[in-house]
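FAQ: What does the model actually see?

It sees only this:
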Amino acid sequence: MKKTQRIILLTVTSFIFLCINLAWAEDIVIKGSTTVLPITQKVAEAYMKENPDINISISGGGSGNGIKAIIDGTTDIANSSRFIKDKEIKLALKKDRYPVPFSLAYDCIIPVVHMSNKINNISMSQLKAIYKGEISNWKQLGGEDRKIVVISRDTSSGTYEVWEKKVMKKERVYPGALLQASNGAIAQIIAKNKNAIGYIGIGYINSKTKPLTVNSIEGTVETTLSGEFPISRPLYMFTNKWPAGETSKFINYMLHPEKGQKLVEEAGFVPLY
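And it is asked to produce this:
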């Protein structure tokens, strides 16, 4: 009987300690840009290893969805590959939400083609013509006689909006383009389709896709930081008001030169420093 009582006591004690630990554990919710996703995942993994009581949940869905989540109060941090829009700020203020931006890294959006494609360089005007549907065959660019398959990001993506602003000059991508929800999805399609062209963040460049120079400028860390590469941009995190508690600590960790910024570089992106 005494043995049974001891077992029950140990079980109850263990349950109490578990409840106490769960009560003290904090969660950080992060939503938004798929471009920023690999950075956040890498930094969050390191942060949780150093802080085992912290749970960080991360999901993509695009910059627009991340900013919507910070406005609706369903996330602690919104990842975004573009700056918040005026109409989003007005909507936030109506809901008594005050988005605060933090630059966490730099990125450049690089046009990519299949490894077998003979084209190495493309101009901004040619990119615009392709994505408007005015150039439809690789032969028009000095390549093989093959129809160009145009791959673009969906309109909720911050990457799309930067592309629309810097390449399309506010003109819309033509309806024949195939829309994808993430950088990774575009990279996979390009790796398999000899006729395709797409655009991805520098952190998604791999050995299965061929990056093109733009106006004879290669997308690199140096040309991104200098702004020389014509499709460069900062990446952001947004919080509601000035962050506090673990959210503040995580952002400080992300911005730390020897911690988060080292991991930004390891993720293939351009650190702030």
